[in-house]
Amino acid sequence: MADIKGSCLCGAVKFQIEGEIKALTYCHCSLCRKAHGSAFGAYIVTGKDSFVVLEGVESLRGYRSSSHVSRTFCGDCGSNIQFIRDGRDDIGVAAGVLDDDPGVKPSRQIYCDSKAPWHPLQEEIPHFAQRS
Q1: How far apart are the C-alpha atoms of 119 and 9, rounded to whole Å?
Q2: Does the global pTM surpass 0.85?
Q3: What is the C-alpha separation between 120 and 103, in angstroms, rounded?
Q4: What is the pLDDT of residues 38-58, one digit of tens each?
């Protein structure tokens, strides 16, 4: 598998994913909606060790959005970068900041019980009330 590159809006943070892409997930929880400013957050799921910052580590900032989740973003332009759940070997990388095609399609929608009321689910993608 080829490395998948990504970057933030201003280009200060550049990274690549050097390992397996395990899934592409849409999360409809209210925290992801607020973090992305959208109807849902789209995340590539990969191993923590697969994510390599190429440039701009000094621009990365973190935010503890709940007792068990940290999110990273570019401190210059605000682009969401990572979703990191405590105690897990996998992370979510915001799909919108990928520069390359990850080669996967969305496989599930989670936290659909708290989706934006104005946005319909994509019925062809399996959906779950909570995390699956």
Answers
A1: 25
A2: yes
A3: 25
A4: 999 999 999 999 999 999 999
